[in-house]
């Protein structure tokens, strides 16, 4: 029942090559092949295998073993789970509806929002056959009399019962049959502007507008079918400035106008403008001149001003508000900036064809005038149209990120698997969003999660593959389950910390009152958590499958195979060039990220701290104090969705405020009304996460206005209103807006009748009235109201279906003008609210639930964005800090990391302010997501710093930069490319998304790389400083006082001499080396191999270059040593010995080392004769074990892919050990002894040469040690028993060989004395 299990996989076998083989990349799927001459020399591949006896169906003991041994089964299980979740999410409930992409951006749950919703519900449910009615009943007999004329009720009921029909143009032949009625809000409009920024009041400009309409609008084939027609069945003329002048001058067309006509019309307009701006000139003045007197002020207006209503309509509709205004009336030639044209076509979707074919080009000009504003009522339709067309930009942006991912990973299979993981994460998150959380609304903005998740997966994939390759480089012969376990040890810690912190930042945005932002926060936070699970399962599975089944191998061909065909020679040459480019890029990356960047960060840390701190303070001041981000000036139906230069946006944002009819429509320059409501509770009982759920109308059960105390209080309240400074008195033509006063006057005007006693109930009563009299007489008064239906709908009582008085509405005007300015509206609301709140506190019990509302829709949005955006951002930062603290359990690291994250957020917001962004709901969503997007880079560095095996802060900073900077820079550059690609989009959301991700990722990369590490250089925790320790924990991290590892880095002058003396004392007391005749004192600036040479005379962690040299060891020696020592070793120890005993002392940097890592002899021998061709093979075919030849087999040089390769990685101590670094806890292991470097095994040393001397071959030799050399002998295994649990006690005092990279120069022999101080 047992079988022999091979613990080695392709990754292990690949590390051992023949002596003449060139470096091979360790990356899965690499095409690095070794060119061998098949005719003369066959490649010899040595397989080092550790054999363990296991049961055939042994259950996996760990998650990593499950992934390594059963990758296909686990992958199939994951795919099955994803399919089940996806089907459940699609089949349960309705699919997302994106027909209204802008829905969900209204605030819900705010104080003003609840009042607005209650008022809208009140208006919605008031009318014929609805919950509430303006009249108590439709039957006069219910009041005991039949002779009451109820024209108001009958007319209103009939009007409400009739369905609304589409408003058509009426025929108005009083204007000479020229126009088909007056212009109105339902017709399409064009705004014209002078091309040279001059005035439009001239013949050429007016005729240009007429020609532009003819060529752009009326020439379209659809115009004939869409236009309104007159009695002659011809299309009606447009309402334009030229046509009005032609009407006044009795011309048939605007093309016949002359300068005299223009001048004469200007004189008439100048004379009549005064009457228009003082409110005397109204459309009804034309009827008053015909004998139907309705508006007394019209009597003083000259007849020429009322002809055809042309003057009124020109000033009201056709010209801008500044033309002939009271400020410009005295100008000799007033300037006309903008002119509006109404087309005889109703607004709506039918205008899409005309717009897309004739007006889609925004710059529509004929060199005299240009069309700069359009209002066809199709803004939302065009937005949906472009929303689909511009999807190509986010798709291209994601492709750019994926291409960057494929370029970095160099594996199409892993890239495809990551794409599958992104899709799976989104679908599983949608299942939780829809089924588990029961969200019924899925906003369009949630699709932004695709771009964010793609970047997050790219970052995670880069980190994982770098850690995987680092593990392969340091432990090439470790079995696959152990490699998966070691990689996941670091990667899982990083993923948990990064994902939890990022998702917490997104979840914190849920406190916003805007529905779309809350939905996005839940979906995005859930997606990050689900993606974390996929990254720790799906990604390792992909790499294991790539390693075991899909990796490339080499097939060797002779020289003649490549020389007999020109195409093959060309392919071979191209392959060499690509390899050269690849090698150049790898060397450049190593130089940049492993040497220059750490050096620049550490040496210039003073500059980085000051610079980024100033940026953070400046960004915080700009975004929070002055000038802050601009608040929106448009309500949601007209919210900006295109660029500011788009004609639709220019009309809504600019031109709608330039014409008087639009300003009156929006309430501009008018007094703010106040509406007081009793009987309706100001609550929002709908689903706040669904914009289509507006709740129901909730009546106040305590409402009672019939009580005498309530009557007296209402009368006093009305008097108190009139005494306030904010009250604006109404003129004598308006009816009283106080209901109780109107009712009292009606009761006092009633005359009792001796004939009909039924009418005597409401006469001869003193105020206040009894409850029954009040209820009955109110109904009678309402039924006798006049035909002023507008006043009846907006004011007075509301009755339910049973005729009971259940609500009361009062309205008055204030002295405040309507304003788009948030500060002014806020002052108005606070003042009115404070006064009304104080008054209602003194109201009787039946009226204590009253409230007020006004035109506050825009203020509600502005207030929510102005207050909640910063609050949500601060909460996200606070929650991220808590998650950082829970992840690292280090207070100092968490503080520095959150400082960098906060700086990123504030600098991003400050730049958005400088870009003049308007803080609409979409932009508020981006700002709320800034914290979540700023976490990843800083979190990666923070955890790398925390896991560093070194104890001093400078070495930790260098370690963190070397481990993570490459992947961070790649992700930042990918997001930069994605943001640039999205800039040409027409849809503003796509364009702003591109700008936002471009800025936040680049700024985050800068703050994380430079600011965070600079803070750590100054105040970073050393050893266990700042670590939160719990009494129940096993203990803190062990950093011995003697453990100043060879990789330790120092820059500060006050530490350098201290550590130098400590290092010298330690070498004198503990370890003494014989360098004959090399003993000499090195200066501080000796190590010129790195840019940090002047900072320390000790070897630098910034210049690690690991090379595994096997030219002087054979596997026979290793095999001999293992005999007799395997009894007390576990399987793990055995694997380690096999991996370590066959390797010599690691070669340190030599002053003679060339760029090529292979020896010159190998290079010369194989340059022209050894070539190979890469083919795909299965692991079973290439893992055939060949006999070992101890006399000829040599371990070749191995070159690793640039990534997280650091000889000071934590991978050296992940195997059943709590230690951080071999040299950190045992000073005697700083420079180990190699059993494979014994004199008996050494090759190439002349018999007459004396060890430790130059033997006349060279006068002097300078030794530059750049990294520590591990002792991998049995002595080191004994001393590091806590790591390897090896109780064998073997001693070897032979010298250690430092091999020279030059074949004609001797190696350096270092011998350690026996005088060692016991380790603590």
Radius of gyration using CA atoms only: 42 Å
pLDDT below 50 for ≥5 consecutive residues: which ranges? 1-55, 138-176, 787-793, 1040-1249, 1251-1255, 1257-1293, 1312-1320
The helix content is 40-55%
Subunit arrangement of the protein: single chain
- Summed over residues and divided by their number, the pLDDT gives a mean of 74
Distance between the termini: 47 Å
Layout of secondary structure:
Elements: E1 2-6, H1 10-13, E2 51-55, H2 63-69, H3 71-91, H4 111-124, H5 151-161, E3 187-194, H6 203-218, H7 223-226, H8 241-248, H9 259-277, H10 285-289, H11 310-318, E4 338-346, H12 352-359, E5 364-365, E6 369-375, H13 379-389, H14 392-409, H15 412-436, H16 448-474, H17 480-507, H18 515-550, E7 552-556, H19 559-563, H20 566-603, H21 605-624, H22 647-653, H23 660-665, E8 671-678, H24 708-722, H25 739-749, H26 771-783, H27 789-794, E9 796-799, E10 805-817, H28 822-841, E11 851-853, H29 857-888, H30 891-914, H31 921-946, H32 953-981, H33 988-1019, H34 1053-1069, E12 1073-1074, H35 1115-1122, H36 1131-1141, H37 1160-1166, E13 1172-1176, H38 1179-1182, H39 1222-1225, H40 1274-1279, H41 1281-1284, E14 1296-1298, E15 1308-1312
Antiparallel strand pairs: 1-2, 3-4, 3-6, 5-6, 7-13, 8-10, 8-11, 9-10, 12-15, 14-15
